[in-house]
């Protein structure tokens, strides 16, 4: 599979398509089943696994670790991504409400706890999950720098950050923010126009795209935009002999910011299908037909 | 009292809580009464006094000067802030409408007139009051640089400027813009999210917060958001044993941009109350509960 | 006539008022008639002629070239501007929809085709017509740099780009982007407030203003804002003894970004009228009265 090499750190790379494991706990897999999924993904070239402390009500990282323990030699073939900075109400804590915490203490503790839950020595990538209005950039940068220099984290990045958030945090960090993981899809196309992806392209930050199918809306949604997209996907599916899911991925992959979409299905057949799209570039007109369908209007 | 030292000019500082005198003319104080207010504020550690040429229909600065004349030795214990750049219709002029004027000529004349009205030799800080769509950055920067080099103004800043306004003016100035005075409160929380405060934090510009209680709406407003905030303030007031006004200030003081709220009451008891909040940091959950109340929704 | 010299390239200048030829094909002029128009404009000092590959359904540039061929010595007295990057459905092609193409191949071919159609050796200025969401900045910058170094294009710029688009493209280019051609008028005043013109002023990019009369709405529109502007233009017309069209131009010319409005009329009397406004600066209050009329509210 194609890989995305960071221009900011040549020794860092991700697989062009990454696997999101936020629903791992929902699948009720045994550790053995999870291991099989991981192995099949690695076989397809999908080496980047995306997690977060809070996924599955704080349980996914442990489930992932349980599977990995069955075959620890797989660790070296993967990039493991985690995120922290959200405090989610749960039976495991007594938070009065969902909130953010980007304090040095919390981020350090969360990263260490992710390592412990997955029983690994180092995260390949640690992302700050959401922009915290109380982000003290000096304090957070110091904590992230220390996690990197101490070897607990290979590289750092952010998620759902707007350019001004990135600029603030980067202004205090010694190491570069390599990744911004944001929501992008045909039905969430604002980042293509409002400067988010332009900023990534300019600063050579790798965008990872979460919810690349808009949570399934692209294929089954009943809103007006979704139905227009569905009709266009059908047409193009016939014309180009590609499946709708493949078209949706190819639409993202064509963007020059070189983003990595996150697939989230537990079914290998679907994942195989998605991966098969690599190497099939969408023609420019087809791309704009999908954009027109999504926005309900022509370009200016 | 805590002080805010500018990272851009180590010899410049403000008191953490500043006094806004835009209603000085409304209070109908004698000069002696105003002097007593100033002395009490200085006694509380509030050393920063915020004025503008136009306050009180162009009368506040003279009233302030009248009081200061009674005890000129107080001058050395204060930071006096003024603003200019608005032309307000008044009996003193024949403007056809309220408008802005950031021309070199007007800004220089306005600063000199503020000095004369207050009978002082130097403004500690001169702010451009509003972003003027006709701002000629080269001309304005030259005027501001000259006011500083000529000693009439100790330092310069802006008010109600968005980051792009600051960047434009700063690009032509020799001296740094030390302050941006903007409206921020629980009911005007956009600057926490749209990059205004992130930009201040990044560039180490001191934010001063005007209308920190949203003109009283926080405590007496009848809008939906105001009522949600009031209910939350009451709850927290009981839980934390702090007054609503103190909570509202503590909410601003917790922000890592290290902002200076402007109090505007003429009653010393209220001011004393406000100042007393320094040193009592709001817990993170309480901060987010107030944010949720203000916005009517949880964080993402 | 005043000229606008680029601060980024001292040898590059435009006439303060430029001529837009997007309707040239509509006028049904003979080449001789077009030539006469060009000569009269040159006589007025209007030396900058604005075209685009797509104008007049891809026909304007050829019509312009036909006229120029009648008197080739005029070429040296003009700045010829063209634009490319839009693919418009037309009898000349089989595009399935209107879309953008900022690929190196397309932009290079389009520029060469413009040269061929106008039968000239070099464009003075080539603009990318619209921000393409698929803009690969590296590829486009390489193509533009090559057009400049190869002598086919004297200088480059953009059109309808927001600051983040400019920053992205500029980050990869060797040569500076000298111009951003955007829509600005009293009825499209957002660029004065949202940072577009501030960014131009800061980076010393020359703004060209298209549709400076909002397509005539300023004088004949029936919307609320248009009617308020019309009433104010009438008042000021009497007070200042200037025609409404002149006032509308003077309003743009007063802006410190030093923009070049594009006139688009084929009638010389109108153009002469417009040009006559140069040297008559609008008083600041009159400028703000027009702004108030356009926005329906006072400044803050």
Automatic annotation (TrEMBL), chains A, B, C:
<dbReference type="GO" id="GO:0016491">
    <property type="term" value="F:oxidoreductase activity"/>
</dbReference>
<dbReference type="InterPro" id="IPR050523">
    <property type="entry name" value="AKR_Detox_Biosynth"/>
</dbReference>
<dbReference type="GO" id="GO:0005829">
    <property type="term" value="C:cytosol"/>
</dbReference>
<feature type="domain" description="NADP-dependent oxidoreductase">
    <location>
        <begin position="16"/>
        <end position="287"/>
    </location>
</feature>
<dbReference type="InterPro" id="IPR018170">
    <property type="entry name" value="Aldo/ket_reductase_CS"/>
</dbReference>
<protein>
    <submittedName>
        <fullName>Putative oxidoreductase</fullName>
    </submittedName>
</protein>
<dbReference type="Pfam" id="PF00248">
    <property type="entry name" value="Aldo_ket_red"/>
</dbReference>
<dbReference type="InterPro" id="IPR036812">
    <property type="entry name" value="NAD(P)_OxRdtase_dom_sf"/>
</dbReference>
<dbReference type="InterPro" id="IPR023210">
    <property type="entry name" value="NADP_OxRdtase_dom"/>
</dbReference>
<dbReference type="InterPro" id="IPR020471">
    <property type="entry name" value="AKR"/>
</dbReference>
């Amino acid at each position: 599979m194609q890989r995305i090499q960071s221009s900011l750190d040549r020794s860092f790379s991700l697989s062009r398509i990454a696997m999101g494991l936020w629903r791992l706990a929902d699948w009720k897999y045994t550790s053995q089943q999870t291991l099989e999924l991981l192995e099949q993904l690695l076989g397809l070239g999908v080496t980047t696994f995306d997690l977060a402390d809070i996924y599955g009500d704080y349980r996914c990282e442990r489930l992932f670790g349980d599977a990995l323990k069955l075959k620890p030699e797989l660790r070296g073939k993967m990039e493991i991504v985690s995120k922290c900075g959200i405090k989610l109400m749960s039976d495991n804590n007594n938070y009065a409400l969902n909130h953010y915490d980007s304090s040095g203490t919390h981020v350090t503790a969360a990263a260490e706890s992710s390592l412990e839950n997955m029983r690994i020595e180092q995260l390949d990538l640690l992302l700050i999950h959401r922009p915290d209005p109380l982000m003290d950039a000096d304090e957070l940068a110091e904590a992230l720098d220390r996690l990197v220099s101490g070897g607990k984290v290979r590289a750092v990045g952010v998620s759902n950050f707007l350019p001004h958030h990135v600029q603030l945090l980067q202004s205090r960090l010694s190491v570069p923010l390599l990744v911004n993981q944001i929501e992008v899809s045909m039905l969430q196309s604002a980042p293509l126009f409002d400067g988010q992806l332009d900023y990534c392209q300019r600063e050579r930050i790798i965008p990872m795209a979460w919810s690349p199918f808009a949570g399934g809306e692209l294929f089954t949604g009943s809103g007006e935009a979704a139905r227009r997209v569905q009709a266009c996907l059908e047409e193009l599916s016939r014309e180009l002999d590609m499946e709708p899911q493949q078209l949706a991925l190819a639409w993202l992959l064509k963007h020059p910011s070189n983003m990595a979409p996150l697939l989230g299905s537990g079914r290998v057949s679907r994942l195989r299908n998605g991966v098969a799209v690599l190497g099939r570039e969408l023609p420019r007109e087809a791309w704009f037909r999908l954009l027109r369908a999504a926005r309900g209007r022509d370009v200016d």
